[in-house]
Amino acid sequence: ERVSSDAIQIHGGYGYVADFPVERIYRDVRVCQIYEGTSDIQRLVIAREIAKG
Questions:
Q1: pTM here?
Q2: Could you report the per-residue pLDDT of 1-53, keeping only the tens digit for each?
Q3: Please, what is the Cα angle at 7 between 9 and 31, to 5 degrees?
Q4: CA dist., res. 36 & res. 53, Å (int)
Q5: Which residue from 13, 29, 42, 45 has the least number of CB within 10 angstroms?
Q6: Which of these is catalytic: 1, 23, 36, 49?
Q7: For residues 2 and 36, what is the distance between their CA atoms, to the nearest angstrom?
Q8: What phi and psi, each to the nearest 5 degrees, are found at residue 19?
Q9: Known catalytic residue: 36?
């Protein structure tokens, strides 16, 4: 997320325009976070699966 956010900042207003791939990458990252949960949630899920064996 941080990398895609930095890329948006570097591109400025053009980073939000759909003609640039940066916009799609940033949007995809945000959707994945919403769909799959935060990194903390993912860590908990992985830890539970490892503990189950």
A1: 0.51
A2: 788 888 888 888 777 777 788 888 888 888 877 777 777 888 888 899 999 97
A3: 105
A4: 22
A5: 13
A6: 36
A7: 17
A8: -75, -15
A9: yes
Buried b (16+ CB within 10 A) or exposed e, 16-38: eeeeeebbeebeeeeeeeeeeee
Length of the chain: 53
Asked if 33 and 1 count as a contact pair (C-beta separation under 8 A), the reply is yes
Give the chain as a 3 state SS string: CHHHHHHHHHHHHHHHCCCCHHHHHHHHHHHHHHHHCCHHHHHHHHHHHHHHC
What is the C-alpha to C-alpha distance for residues 36 and 25, in angstroms, rounded to an integer? 16
